[in-house]
Structure formats: structure tokens, C-alpha cells
Specification:
Elements lengths: L14 H5 L7 H12 L10 E4 L9 H16 L5 E6 L6 H9 L4 E7 L3 H6 L6 H13 L3 E8 L6 H13 L4 E6 L2 E2 L3 H8 L7 H18 L2 E5 L12 E3 L6 H16 L8 E7 L3 H5 L4 H6 L5 E7 L8 E4 L2
Parallel strand pairs: 1-2, 2-3, 3-4, 4-5, 5-7, 9-10
Antiparallel strand pairs: 6-8, 9-11
Helix pairs in contact: 7-9, 9-10
The structure holds iron/sulfur cluster (SF4).
């Protein structure tokens, strides 16, 4: 969804570019998009959701919300999808809006919380304070929806401590899931002007990876699922739009690589051998070896040979090390 519904102008936002969507999608295009995507899934059990992202769904004109919800609900009733999710602003949630979403079978509501620090929100031009996020989160949970609270790191006046406090508050508010986006400077935004004037400093990629890793660990401990780390290349951001900031097409891979490096560093008992086999969960083999094999290369400073093996059934983020002889 484009920014259509949003009367605010957060300093970092050029929603047309972020969503990759210039116009309000017409009903037949939405149906076509859903059908085309559904046709790409293999047969067999699966969980599929229709998601309306980008703009503020509950701020769209009522008739447009109804058109989109009716489309999604038909797919839900036929059992072709198992859920509907929307994203919106915290101050665009009230009982009437929640009732409508519930009537049409919406299952998950994501709020762009960004930060729960009053100064960061003010300096970012969000147009609401932390209390709006707190109020909306409580209502969403009371109405029985799944709650997602998205956060952004490195906003104007943000610090690691403030981001950490935001993550703690997201956990306390009962979010089921979160997304962590490093703040980027995008062409045409107010943040670009601030950056060019020298009033805003971007996080380095290393900082963004380090902050995200520590937040990811906090969320993991609390059982809050991090469903996105960094902007996906398909989210419409191309090289020309990006002025500055910690963008990397494999940002999640960098953070997960850092997580595995952290686990290796903290592991105290290593075999006395010059060659080791490290068994890791099969689906984490790539990040255990590391982006561009960085973890293997680091371990090879201590071992002549390091063999990684993916193992089915191995607990997530756990590993076994054996001497290779
Ligand atoms: S509320 Fe959302 S859509 Fe509106 S300006 Fe901010 S980020 Fe962009």
C-alpha cells in the first residue's frame, strides 16, 4: 500500500519508495496478485497469510478498507489462506476499527512502533508518543488479535540503550512478534536534509548488526519472534534511493552470522585436535559457517581444518563439536 492514508511525514519515510507501490492497488489487481502468489506454493499443508503492508491500513478511506478486507476474507473462507494481517499506525487504532477488522477475519495487526522513547519519536516526526503504542497494543490484545510491534534502530537521538529499552517494552506489552529495521536515509525525505546538514548521523553497518544481534537475543529469550531483520531487497529500495545508512541485501544473514560467532566465542570446551567437526542444525548451516564463510575463517585461526555438518533434528542455535580423527 502506498502512503495515501497517512497525513504525517516521519522524517525517514518516503512510503512510495519503501512499499514499491505508487498507486492504490485496484481490486482486480489485488485479486490477481493473491492468485498468482498462491499458485506458486507447492501442494500439501502450509500456512499462508494475506498481508496489507506499507501504508496505514486503518487510515485508508473506509470504502477502500472494505474492498480489500472483502477480497481477503473470501480467500480465508475458502481455506486458501489461513490468516490476514495488516500494518498500521498506533494512533489509528480504536474499538470501531478493531471491530471491523475482526468481522473480516483479520488475525494479526502490526504497529509501526519504531521507538518507545518520547524524544526519539518526537525527533522522528512520528506525531505520537509512546502512550499511543501502549494504548493500541492493549486494545489489540484485548480483541484477541496477534500483535506485532515493529521497531527501528538508529533514529534521530536514538542510542543503543534507548533501543534496548524499546525492545524490553515491546516484550512487556505482550507482542507476539517484531521486526527490526535499521534506519536508512532515503532520497527526498526530511532525514536526507538532516543528514546533509550534519544534524543526523547514520549507524554504521557494524553498529546496526551489533545492535540487532543484542536485540534479537533479548527477544529470543522472551519468546518474541523476530520475523524480519532489515529491509528486504524486494521492498522497493534500490541503489539510487539510498543516500546513506546500514543497508545490506543480506542483513539478516549478517546478524545471524554474528549470533553464531558469539556462540562460538562463548563456548569454553573445544577439542584438543587440529581438525574439528561442528554439527549444527541443517537449516542454520549457512549462517553457522557465516556470511562469506567468516565464522569458518575465524575458527581456522585455531584449527587447521574445520568441517561443518548440517544435522536434522539438532536444536535451533545449538551445536556439537567433535575432534575429526
Ligand atoms: S506513519 Fe508510516 S506511512 Fe506515515 S509517514 Fe510515517 S512511516 Fe510513512
Amino acid at each position: 500500500m502506498p502512503e495515501l492514508a497517512c497525513p504525517f511525514q516521519c522524517v525517514f519515510c518516503d512510503q512510495h519508495r519503501i512499499s514499491g507501490m505508487e498507486d492504490v492497488p485496484e481490486a482486480h489487481k489485488v485479486i490477481h496478485l493473491i492468485e498468482r502468489n498462491l499458485s506458486t506454493f507447492p501442494d500439501g499443508p502450509k500456512t499462508v497469510e494475506i498481508a496489507f503492508f506499507g501504508g496505514n491500513f486503518t487510515g485508508l478511506p473506509g470504502n477502500l478498507q472494505l474492498i480489500y478486507l472483502e477480497i481477503a476474507q473470501k480467500f480465508l473462507i475458502k481455506g486458501l489462506v489461513q490468516g490476514i494481517r495488516i500494518s498500521t499506525r498506533p494512533d489509528y487504532i480504536d474499538l470501531e476499527k478493531l471491530q471491523l477488522l475482526r468481522n473480516y477475519g483479520v488475525t494479526t495487526i502490526e504497529l509501526g512502533a519504531q521507538s518507545l522513547d518520547a524524544e526519539v519519536l518526537r525527533m522522528s516526526g512520528r506525531g505520537h508518543g509512546p502512550e499511543a503504542v501502549e494504548r493500541a497494543s492493549k486494545l489489540i490484545l484485548q480483541y484477541g488479535f496477534r500483535l506485532g510491534l515493529q521497531m527501528m534502530i538508529g533514529l534521530p537521538h536514538d542510542t543503543f540503550e534507548k533501543s534496548y529499552e524499546t525492545a524490553k517494552r515491546i516484550i512487556e506489552l505482550g507482542a507476539h512478534e517484531t521486526r527490526i529495521y535499521p534506519c536508512l536515509v532515503i532520497k527526498g525525505t526530511a532525514l536526507e536534509q538532516m543528514y546533509l546538514r550534519g544534524d543526523y548521523r547514520v549507524l554504521t553497518l557494524e553498529q546496526a548488526v551489533d545492535w540487532s544481534l543484542r536485540l534479537w537475543q533479548l527477544f529470543a529469550e522472551a519468546g518474541v519472534k523476530v520475523i524480519r531483520l532489515g529491509l528486504h531487497p524486494s521492498e522497493g529500495l534500490n541503489g539510487d534511493d539510498l543516500v546513506a545508512g546500514p543497508y545490506h541485501p543480506s542483513f539478516k544473514e549478517l546478524v545471524m552470522t554474528a549470533l553464531w560467532r558469539d556462540m562460538f566465542e562463548k563456548h569454553s570446551v573445544w577439542p584438543k585436535s587440529d581438525s574439528v567437526i561442528i554439527e549444527v542444525p541443517a537449516n542454520e548451516l549457512g549462517v553457522a559457517v557465516g556470511h562469506k564463510a567468516s565464522n569458518r575463517n575465524w575458527l581456522k585461526k585455531s584449527y587447521r581444518e574445520v568441517v561443518f555438518r548440517g544435522k536434522y533434528g539438532q536444536e535451533p542455535q545449538s551445536f556439537l563439536i567433535k575432534p575429526n580423527n
